[in-house]
Design goal:
The complex is a heterodimer of chains A (403) and B (437). Chain A has helices spanning 2-11, 40-52, 95-106, 125-131, 255-259, 261-276, 304-311, 321-333, 337-352, 358-371, 377-383, 390-401, and strands at 16-17, 27-33, 57-63, 83-86, 110-114, 146-150, 153-157, 165-166, 170-176, 190-196, 199-200, 209-217, 227-237, 240-245. Chain A has 403 residues and is of the alpha/beta class. Chain A has two domains: 2-276, 3-Layer(aba) Sandwich (Rossmann fold); 304-401. In chain A, strand 13 and strand 14 (240-245) form a beta hairpin. In chain B, helix 9 crosses helix 11. In chain B, the strands form two sheets. Chain B has a nine-stranded mixed sheet with strand order 13-12-11-7-10-9-8-14-15. Chain B starts with a helix and ends in a 15-residue tail after the last helix. By secondary structure, chain B is α/β, with parallel strands linked by helices. The longest helix of chain B has 20 residues, at 382-401. Chain B is globular. The chains are: A alpha/beta (403), B alpha/beta (437). At the A-B interface, helix 8, helix 10 and helix 12 of A face helix 11 and helix 12 of B.
Chain lengths: 403, 437
C-alpha cells in the first residue's frame, strides 16, 4: 500500500487521490498532510487504512505544498467532507483556507487532531481552540495553562514555561478518565500503549475540552513530569466536534505507536464520534489491557479463519493470540447456539487434522469441554488412546458426557 | 497423647452440640475463651502446616505468636527449600529439632496425630486436600478462596458438616475493627436499607507473558505441585505467579473474594445465600499463559432485590474496598483502617442492645485456636467462605460464557444453561479425585 503510493505522493506538490479498489461509501474524510517534523509519508496512508477499514469512512489524502511553497494553491473544499484529519505540522495556510476550515468546524464538521498536529499553527487562535492543548512552536503561558491530572485531581496550571515535551520513547499505560464517554465505553480502563512519545506539558486555551484518558509521565523512565498527562481529548468548537489524540508517532511501517491496537481503536472510535457524536463500533477482541502491548503489524483485525489456521500450528513457544481470539469470539456469541456450533465444527476439524500440532489440540480440548456438544464426543473419544492427548481428552469428556 | 486424644474427642462432641445452633451473629466474651490463663501442655492445640510458601509461613508465624496455645509438630510441602525453611522457623522458636517434615500430604495426614492443620496451597489443590484433612477429623485453618470451583466448595462444606470439625477461613479482615464496625453499621441499617453494594478488588496484575520452559529445580516436585491440574511444562510459576493462570486460580478476583466480597456479605446479611442472576464482562490478556481477567466487572442480583457490583478497583468511584449503599447513604470500608460514610455521623452511631451484634474477634488465628479448643463456631466458618467465593466463581462463569447466568442459591445450581453448568466443576487429572459428597 505504502510503496505503491509513495512515488505518487513525492511527485505531486498538491494532489488528492482516492483508494482505487474501494467503492465510495462511508463518511467522506480528508486527511491533510504534506509538512510535518514527523514522517507523514508513512503516517498518512496508515491513517487512511485504519479509518477506511472500519467501513465507516472513505478517506482521501491531500498533500499541501512543500515547506516555503505557495500556500494560496492549497484550497480544499471542506464542505465536501464530514471529517478532516490533520496530520500536518508546518507552514501557515492561507487566510482564506483558515477561514474556510473555521467555518467548516463551526458548522458541525468533524476533526481529528493527530499527534504532532497539535504542534502546528501556534499563532492561529481558532485552531488552538480546536486542539485545546498544544506544544512546541514557542508556546508558553501566553497560549494558556498546562492541563494535567495530579494525585487524581484535574489541574489547571498557569505557571510560566514552555509548552510541549516528551521523555525517552517507551511503552506506557493509558488510563481512562471518562469511562462512559462513547469513545471509551466498553474499553479496558487501563491499557499498555506501544512504544511512543509520551507528550507532556501541553498548554492551550483548553476551552470546551474534556480529557478522556491520561498517561503518567514518569521522570524515572527516561524523563517526565510526574504528572498524568492528557492523551485523548474531545473538544467542541461551534457545532463541530474534535477528537485529539497525542499518540501515534510514526516509525517506518508505522512502528509500535501506530500498530498499537489501542491507538488504532481509539482513532477509529474518536473519528466516528467527531462525525456523529456517537460510536457504533464494537470493541475489538485484541484491545490491549494492562497485561501487555498488542500490535497489529498489518493494522487489520484477525479473522476467525486466520485464528484457526494459526492455532493448528500452535506450539508452546508460539503466540497464544489465536486462542485468545477464539475465546473472545465465544464470549461475544453469548450463548448463541448456531454460532457456537460453527466454532465447534472448526475445532473438531483441527482435532481430526493429522498435521495440526498436539499442543493446538490440547488447547481446543479445554475449550470444547464446556462449549462442545455430542457432535465432538466421538472425535474426542478417539483421542483418549493418544498418550499425548489422553489427559486433555478425558478432561473434555468428563464435562461433555456427565449430566 | 492419651490426654490429647480424649480432649479431642470432647471438643468434637461439643462441636457436634453447637453445630447448626449458631445462626445469629453473637458476641463471645473473651473471658469465656480462657484468655490470659496459662494453658497446660496437654491442652495445646497440636498443629501442622501443609503449604509453607509465603501465606503458609505468614499464618505459621501468627500461630507461633500464640505461644503455648499451639504446638507445631510437622510441616509438609512439595518444595524442599520451603519445607526446610518452615522446619527451621519452628525449631528456632521451640529451641529444638523436633519438627517433622513431609513432602506428601497423604503421608503427613496418615502419620501425624494432630488436632488441627493450617493449609495454604494453590487453589487447584484446595478441594482434595481440605477434604482429606477434614475427613481425618482435623480442625482446619484454610486459606481463601476455599475452592477453585463451586463443586470443590460444595465437597468441602459437606465434609466439614459431616465431620463436625472447626473451620476457620483465612478471611482475617473479619477480625479487624473497621471491617467489623462497617458491617455492623450496615446490617443495622445505619445507611438505610442496603440496596446496592460495590466491591472493589485489585486491578489485574501486569502480564507475565509466556515465561520460557525451564528444567524443574531439584527442590520441587512439579508433578505433585500440579496434582489434579492438567500437565504442562514447568515455567517457573509455582510460587506466586500461579495466581494468574486459570488452571490454578481466578486471579485477583478469586484471591480477594474471600476478603471484600466476604465483608460485603457480612454487612448485608447475604452470608448464607447467593445471587440469582450474574452478568458482566472481563478483559483478558491477548498474549501469554497469564489468562485470568486483567479487568472484571459484573453485577449480581439477589432474590431480595439487593444488587452487588464486583469490579477491579480502577473501574469504581471509591476504588478498593466494600461500599454498602442504603436508601439513606453509604458506608465504605477498606484496608488501612479505612471506614468512611456519606455522613460522618453514621460512624458515631451506637448499636443498641437489641440490635444485631456481629461476631467479634480481634485476632483471627487466636479465634481459630480458641474455637478449636472450645468447640464454638469461628468468625469465618466454611459455609460463609463458600458463599463469598461463589460470587466470584459465578462471575467468572458469566464472563467466560459472555452470558447472564441464572443461579439457584438454595439448590446451588445454574438454571437452564448446560454449557455454563459444566464450568461449575473442573475435571481432575487421573488418578486424583474429589471425595464423593
Amino acid at each position: 500500500m505504502k510503496k505503491k503510493y509513495l512515488p505518487l505522493i513525492i511527485a505531486a506538490g498538491l494532489i488528492t487521490f482516492f483508494s482505487a479498489c474501494k467503492t465510495e461509501t462511508g463518511f467522506k474524510t480528508l486527511i491533510i498532510t504534506g509538512q510535518n517534523n514527523h514522517n507523514w509519508k508513512v503516517s498518512s496512508p496508515i491513517l487512511k487504512q485504519i479509518l477506511d477499514q472500519t467501513g465507516l469512512f472513505s478517506s482521501e489524502i491531500m498533500i499541501t505544498p512543500d515547506k516555503g511553497g505557495d500556500m494560496k494553491i492549497f484550497n480544499p473544499d471542506f464542505s465536501k467532507y464530514k471529517l478532516v484529519v490533520i496530520d500536518y505540522n508546518g507552514d501557515s495556510w492561507s487566510e482564506k483556507t483558515n477561514s474556510a476550515f473555521v467555518d467548516y468546524v463551526k458548522n458541525g464538521g468533524g476533526v481529528v487532531i493527530y499527534h504532532a498536529a497539535d504542534n502546528s499553527f501556534p499563532a492561529w487562535k481558532e485552531y488552538n481552540e480546536m486542539t485545546g492543548l498544544g506544544g512546541w512552536g514557542d508556546r508558553n503561558q501566553k497560549d494558556g495553562p498546562y492541563i494535567y491530572y495530579k494525585n487524581g485531581q484535574l489541574v489547571t496550571d498557569t505557571s510560566a514555561g514552555n509548552g510541549g515535551s516528551h521523555g525517552k520513547r517507551r511503552a506506557y499505560l493509558v488510563k481512562t478518565r471518562v469511562a462512559d464517554h462513547p469513545i471509551l465505553r466498553g474499553l479496558p480502563v487501563a491499557w499498555l500503549h506501544g512504544t511512543d512519545e509520551l507528550y507532556s506539558q501541553l498548554r492551550g486555551p483548553a476551552k470546551n475540552m474534556q480529557i478522556l484518558a491520561t498517561a503518567f509521565s514518569d521522570s524515572t523512565l527516561g524523563g517526565g513530569t510526574m504528572r498524568d498527562e492528557p492523551m485523548l481529548m474531545t473538544i467542541t468548537y461551534g457545532k463541530g466536534r474534535i477528537f485529539h489524540t497525542v499518540m501515534g508517532h510514526a516509525d517506518e511501517g508505522g512502528g509500535p505507536a501506530m500498530q498499537c491496537v489501542g491507538f488504532i481503536t481509539t482513532l477509529q472510535r474518536g473519528a466516528e464520534w467527531a462525525v456523529t457524536g456517537e460510536v457504533t463500533q464494537r470493541v475489538p477482541w485484541d484491545f490491549p489491557s494492562a497485561a501487555g502491548v498488542v500490535l497489529r503489524p498489518d493494522f487489520k483485525e484477525m479473522t476467525l479463519e486466520e485464528a484457526f489456521t494459526h492455532i493448528a500450528n500452535y506450539d508452546i513457544v508460539k503466540s497464544t493470540k489465536s486462542l485468545s481470539f477464539i475465546q473472545a469470539h465465544l464470549r461475544s456469541l453469548a450463548g448463541d447456539a448456531a454460532g457456537i456450533k460453527k466454532i465447534e465444527e472448526m475445532m473438531v476439524k483441527v482435532l481430526k487434522d493429522k498435521d495440526a500440532t498436539v499442543e493446538s489440540k490440547k488447547l481446543l480440548l479445554r475449550e470444547l469441554s464446556w462449549m462442545g456438544s455430542d457432535y465432538s464426543v466421538p472425535t474426542i473419544k478417539e483421542l483418549v488412546s493418544n498418550a499425548e492427548l489422553k489427559d486433555e481428552a478425558e478432561f473434555a469428556l468428563t464435562r461433555l458426557v456427565s449430566k | 497423647m492419651a490426654n490429647k486424644s480424649s480432649r479431642r474427642d470432647f471438643v468434637k462432641r461439643s462441636a457436634a452440640l453447637v453445630a447448626g445452633a449458631i445462626v445469629l451473629p453473637q458476641i463471645i466474651p473473651s473471658s469465656a475463651l480462657g484468655m490470659g490463663k496459662k494453658i497446660p501442655p496437654s491442652d495445646r492445640l497440636v498443629i501442622g502446616s501443609i503449604g509453607t510458601g509465603s501465606q503458609g509461613m505468614s499464618n505459621m508465624r501468627d500461630f507461633l505468636k500464640l505461644k503455648d496455645a499451639v504446638h507445631f509438630v510437622a510441616v509438609c510441602d512439595v518444595d524442599a527449600l520451603h519445607l526446610a525453611k518452615a522446619k527451621e522457623t519452628i525449631d528456632l522458636d521451640y529451641k529444638n529439632k523436633d519438627c517433622r517434615t513431609y513432602s506428601d500430604y497423604r503421608e503427613f495426614l496418615d502419620k501425624e496425630k494432630l488436632d488441627a492443620v493450617s493449609i495454604a496451597l494453590p487453589d487447584h489443590w484446595h478441594g482434595i486436600i481440605y477434604s482429606a484433612a477434614v475427613n481425618k477429623k482435623l480442625h482446619v485453618y484454610g486459606e481463601k478462596p476455599i475452592c477453585r470451583t463451586i463443586k470443590d466448595g460444595q465437597t468441602i462444606v459437606n465434609a466439614v458438616k459431616q465431620n463436625n470439625i472447626i473451620w476457620q477461613t483465612g478471611s482475617w479482615q473479619r477480625s479487624l475493627f473497621n471491617f467489623h464496625r462497617g458491617a455492623e453499621l450496615a446490617i443495622n441499617g445505619r445507611a438505610g436499607k442496603v440496596k446496592y453494594i460495590e466491591v472493589g478488588l485489585p486491578d489485574g496484575n501486569k502480564g507475565i507473558g509466556t515465561p520460557p520452559v525451564k528444567p524443574v529445580p531439584p527442590e520441587l516436585n512439579w508433578e505433585m505441585w500440579l496434582g489434579p491440574a492438567l500437565k504442562v511444562p514447568y515455567r517457573g510459576i509455582s510460587h506466586w505467579d500461579w495466581r494468574w493462570i486459570l488452571d490454578y486460580s481466578g486471579g485477583q478476583l478469586t484471591d480477594w473474594a474471600g476478603h471484600h466480597i466476604d465483608i460485603a456479605n457480612w454487612g448485608a446479611g447475604l452470608e448464607h445465600t447467593g445471587p440469582v442472576e450474574i452478568s458482566g464482562k472481563g478483559v483478558y490478556p491477548v498474549e501469554g499463559i497469564f489468562n485470568v481477567p486483567v479487568e472484571y466487572d459484573f453485577l449480581c442480583r439477589y432474590s431480595n432485590g439487593i444488587e452487588m457490583r464486583v469490579a477491579n478497583a480502577s473501574r469504581l468511584p471509591l476504588g478498593m474496598g466494600t461500599t454498602w449503599h442504603g436508601d439513606l447513604g453509604w458506608i465504605h470500608v477498606d484496608r488501612g483502617d479505612i471506614i468512611t460514610a456519606s455522613d460522618p455521623k453514621i460512624l458515631n452511631e451506637v448499636i443498641g442492645e437489641n440490635e444485631i451484634h456481629l461476631y467479634k474477634s480481634d485476632n483471627h488465628w487466636k479465634n481459630f485456636v480458641d474455637c478449636a479448643r472450645s468447640g464454638k463456631t469461628t468468625i469465618a466458618p466454611v459455609e460463609v467462605a463458600y458463599r463469598a467465593i461463589s460470587v466470584a466463581l459465578l462471575g467468572e462463569i458469566a464472563m467466560t460464557t459472555g452470558q447472564t447466568i441464572k443461579w439457584d442459591p438454595d439448590k446451588e445450581e445454574i438454571i437452564g444453561n448446560p454449557n455454563a453448568s459444566r464450568l461449575l466443576a473442573r475435571p481432575y487429572r487421573q488418578p486424583w479425585q474429589l471425595p464423593t459428597i
